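Standup notes, protein team

Yesterday: finished cleaning the Methylobacterium planeticum set.
Today: YeiH family putative sulfate export transporter structure.
Blockers: none.

Input for YeiH family putative sulfate export transporter:
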Amino acid sequence: MSAETSSPSARAVPGPRATTLGLVPGLILCLALTGLAMGAQAFEEHQFGHPYIEALVIAILLGIAVRTAWAPSEPFRPGIAFSAKQVLEVAVTLLGASLSLATILASGPALLTGIVGTVVLTIGASCLICRALGLPVRMAILVACGNAICGNSAIAAVAPVIGAESKDVAAAIAFTAVLGVLMVLGLPLFIPLAGLSANQYGVLAGLTVYAVPQVLAATVPAGLASTQVGTLVKLVRVLMLGPVVVVLSLLAPRLRRAGEGARGASRLGFTKLVPWFILGFLLLASLRSLGLIPDAALGPLTRVAGFLTVASMAALGLGVDVRVLARVGGRVTAAVTLSLLVLIAISLALIWSLGIA
């Protein structure tokens, strides 16, 4: 018997080549939907002079439609997951090249303080709403932090710190995945409904949309200025995750005594609190501010980021099962929805109180 046949465990671990090839089916599916979405936008531009529905939104809707009619089988899943996460994170990183850090300084202390206050108020209000609806303490904290900071990333970071049970984490993340897509699709309606300027809408998106990549998707229809402001506000909001986790770690012993059967709390490293693509975004923004990225490179970088974002939105749509809403429970649905409405109200109040134009 040869060494190859006598060592099945060696064959069970795929090599880098096999892993890369495993991404191909899902990537091809996402690229096909991307082509359809960009083709649809090009058709709109040819017929009407401008797109009424951006390729980003079309890609999400196509992905959701495909997912509703057909659940992608195992060969497609790695590539879809890679497109929805890593590809979109690269797009966000590239966006940093178009933003000067002078914009951050120009935002002033009032806006920065307002962002911090919005996060704190939202966490408090969301916890009260969740508890009033009868949700357990840990579930309330997961929903509150997910809404107030950065959706799934905040839930995943907070869960081990407070010792949350896996079923609560799964329910919170499942609902956040669906509601995050609905936010990307529905938030632009506030531009005409609330009479928001591109700058005001960017602040609103940065304060309310769950993930940094989703802010990119939600603000592209409003223009580059809105995207830059929204990303800046969102980055400050994400950085609140560190202080929040520190505070929760101090409260963790009390939370463990308050419930039974939950996992023990644990600590997270720096890379869990500050994702790599945020560091990449800030690095490229710094290089741009120092004049180390030439103006001629901005156009190609922006176009690449846009293409990658559309592909990732297709993947995001493919990962959304709208029927999950019926499975997470009425109380969780009500808690997350009401918390999000409170966040939107607080954000609009901040925009108008600061006189943001």
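Follow-up from PR in the comments: The chain is about 75% helix and 0% strand.
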